[in-house]
Write a structure and sequence with these properties.
The structure is a homodimer. With about 600 residues, chain A is mainly alpha-helical. Chain A folds into 2 domains: about 425 residues, no CATH class; about 160 residues, STAS domain (Transcription Regulator spoIIAA). In chain A, about 60% of the residues lie in helices and about 5% in strands. The first copy, chain A, has 25 helices and 9 strands. In chain A, helix 21 links the parallel strand 7 and strand 8.
Chain lengths: ~600, ~600
Amino acid sequence: MNRYFPILTWAPGYDRRTLAADLIAAVIVTVMLIPQSLAYALLAGLPAEVGLYASIAPLLIYAVFGTSRTLAVGPVAVASLMTAVAVGEVAARGTPEYLGAAILLAVMSGLMLLAMGVLRLGFLANFLSHPVIAGFITAAGLLIAASQVKHILGVRAEGETLVDLIPSLAGHLPDTNPVTLVIGAVATAFLFWARKGLKAALLRAGLREGWAAPLARTGPVLAIVGTSLAAWGFDLGAQGVALVGDIPRGLPVPTLPPLDPALWQALAVPALLISIVGYVETVSVAQTLAARRRQRIDPDQELVALGASNLGAGLSGGFPVTGGFARSVVNFDAGAQTPAAGAFTAVGMALAVMFLTPALYFLPTATLAATIIVAVLGLVDLRALPRTWAYSRPDAAAMAATIALTLAVGVEAGIVAGVALSLALHLWRTSRPHVAVVGQVQGTEHFRNVERHEVVTAPHVLTIRVDESLYFPNARFLEDLIAARTAADPAVTDVILMATAVNEIDASALESLEAINARLRDAGMRLHLSEVKGPVMDRLKRSHLLDDLTGRVFLTQYDAFAALAPDLARATRDRDRCETARPWPRPAGRVGR
Amino acid sequence: MNRYFPILTWAPGYDRRTLAADLIAAVIVTVMLIPQSLAYALLAGLPAEVGLYASIAPLLIYAVFGTSRTLAVGPVAVASLMTAVAVGEVAARGTPEYLGAAILLAVMSGLMLLAMGVLRLGFLANFLSHPVIAGFITAAGLLIAASQVKHILGVRAEGETLVDLIPSLAGHLPDTNPVTLVIGAVATAFLFWARKGLKAALLRAGLREGWAAPLARTGPVLAIVGTSLAAWGFDLGAQGVALVGDIPRGLPVPTLPPLDPALWQALAVPALLISIVGYVETVSVAQTLAARRRQRIDPDQELVALGASNLGAGLSGGFPVTGGFARSVVNFDAGAQTPAAGAFTAVGMALAVMFLTPALYFLPTATLAATIIVAVLGLVDLRALPRTWAYSRPDAAAMAATIALTLAVGVEAGIVAGVALSLALHLWRTSRPHVAVVGQVQGTEHFRNVERHEVVTAPHVLTIRVDESLYFPNARFLEDLIAARTAADPAVTDVILMATAVNEIDASALESLEAINARLRDAGMRLHLSEVKGPVMDRLKRSHLLDDLTGRVFLTQYDAFAALAPDLARATRDRDRCETARPWPRPAGRVGR
């Protein structure tokens, strides 16, 4: 029970001190979350209230299922962009179908995450290598910022890639609404300053560090209040400034997603991508914060928690949610002790949607766009590319491909290409394991790489040590290698495969070994194995390989060499033995285990 | 030059003896290839002459570019089925568009293989693990056999999956043409007998082994001659028996594929799948035959050769070709010495298309269907499934999924799902590398798994040995592991990562190590590294990890333990030293290299 309901681990010991800490954190996060919810709904192309709805049920649900004490779930920038792109493919903005598709996306994402959690498939997130996710988030940040420029200018522009967006923006430049531009530019400038300068200003004004840090996060609220007052006082709506307008008051009601199978099929891939990207971000944030207090999260249970949160988001009329980085850090810094802080934040958001919405009527969308732009530019880290290049060129190539395709073709193409490329590079690397032809070290029963050491070999015996498990990515490599080596050296009659480092032989590699054995037999050679580990040997006994093996299985490589080249092996071992100063170690495979 | 034109390695030394051997093999293969070409064109839904065209240019081209001395390229069953499925998606059978799409498929497959060969991307074929390819071929064999039953019955039935085919066949059963059924059943029975019994009968008739073996392969020719004579003599065409009919005489003319971009896009995935499946089969056959004579093939050059052959097939009006197993074995057994045998076979096929086509007018399609059924049932190996299950359940699961999806949903779904599943299983396995917490063995400077050996550990020092390179599939595992271990044991202040088995740290794992380091620092702990290999260390020096590392990098694990728990480490090393009977080995990481 505790595994699936982590609330049972902390709720029984909940006391007044924890309550006080959680309540303070909840107030601060609520103030931060109101503008973010509105902004990310705008980014996703949805009515403003959908953002508020997505910040109520998911937070309550995460408090029950989540293993992180401080993660703050809710709408985030990247998932909102991915929602806009996915839903834009199947419906037109502003229609009920668009809203229905966004709700369905949250439901599907929730079901997928729940299924992955119950089946413990969290390892699938490993498909997203770090360079791919880092490149994707940088590119998504750039795309999001570019997509909001139209709100700052007060123009209509279309496009979901930089390639489409930039010409469209340039074409609409003459339509710029000057008043909107002033509001957007002032809000952007203020928010940029507030990120760094507000805290210092508050400290100079005499506030204590403990108050200045959370208050410095209220920049977006100040921008919203300021520009809303300006829009109301000067009646800017009449001058063509786009305002948020009427937001329905009242709590969200239970909603069923559309049940059209074609729609489910069309949204399956986007839902999977949103799920995995959101999960990777969530786990990364949760783990970072948990480690600071030496707490633990359970990555598989986080799948369940995030899945249930998304399901809750969809069924209460919201759109996909994720654990947000900035918001979680604020929650942590503000002193949240348990997920109850999230539940209290949900109560705050519920109060906001019941009583605060009339006050948001005059909020200019340019202000929301400014908060988005300032938030996402913090995600952009173009210097990661040269940094990764210096460390690993294949990884940098995967990152560059992800960035380029995300910007030029779209978010889904970018992430899919990045995953495909990093998998291909992984296969490429593992398909060529380190392999050495080995010979006997004089005065020992020890075998070493012929290219690095002075060793003794017999002309008719070829010993190959593979420093890797044998499985499908490298199975054919071994076939090619042995074919090449035996074709190159007609004297060879016996091939020994030294399996010191082989922890596993899968069915593909087994088939390759059988093929190698048969081909060597056809050419009049024998295949032997040496130093096979216990568990590997147990498995091989369940196959036909050992029955058909033309050679033998030797416990040690020395035994193998001694059997195939007895005089040479013994002479090598005994020669110079007395002269050897230090005792030679025995092969690693024989000691300890 | 020799790499790209292997003909240069054998043509200069070509002599009369080799010529005689190659000519004999070419005659035998030609006799076998004529019915096969016609049958596989029928299977692909194409006019009979397209099969003949695909057996001319590709063979000439392979003789120039191929590295196998005995591989016989041409139309094969599985690629023909895949062609029928792919082309059936974009055009209706019997239309010029259908033929155009088949030609385009050969051209695209050729270009893809050529590109992979020039870029040396042969490792991509590793995506197809053995259980997936074996399952796919078994399922394809069943599908092909089922798809030919309609020709034996003389009915029209539709469907590209067993799920569609079987009800359709059952529905058309009343329309069965009895004469066609007799021809089909007799031909099938004869061919089944001929596979095993013809050689024995020839030997009993007094033929020498050397003649009986190749002649036994002429079963399909006998069936064709016999049923054609029957169809001609009894005028079976008038009784509703489907005949091959008119085949245009004359050599193929250069053909350009359709240049419609939408068609190229629609055929991209099928072309890739045909290329990779064909390549895997080609290399496997070529390697098996080359090994018997201790020859070598170059897998990357085989991509070039197969690509050029397919390009040639398309540009001469043919459809995709592959190295065929049965045909190559016949070529080998008949004594072919060089790829010139293939070129002579092409000449034989050219003569056939110029002079033999009128004789094929009366050939019943039921006979061709019988040759297909008998050929492909040899591909079906259902016992591979329990055999694989006994050896490895994940591999058997991948095989079963491939078979089930290929039969029920289609060839592309089957192979794509199989590849995805085996990649996922591979990631799952590598995402959980073997990891041990280690301690010092008494009387030594040696460290071993605490769960298997009596070792000494310090309460504040946690040493973790990872028996695997660190890269993206397992990067997050390490984060989770260290988070769990340090959260579980509040006494720990120092974590040592013992990197004896770490051959590589990719950018994802580097990022994980940086995150681990930062999280440990935030919780007041330090991260140390020990036994880092030289190349790995060189790379780490190009990153920020070493600058930010809270702990130190130690050359050996003993140095690390001695620095962090000096009294304990030295006491453990020195205690009982004199009592230890045998000298303890030093850790594997320190010797030899």
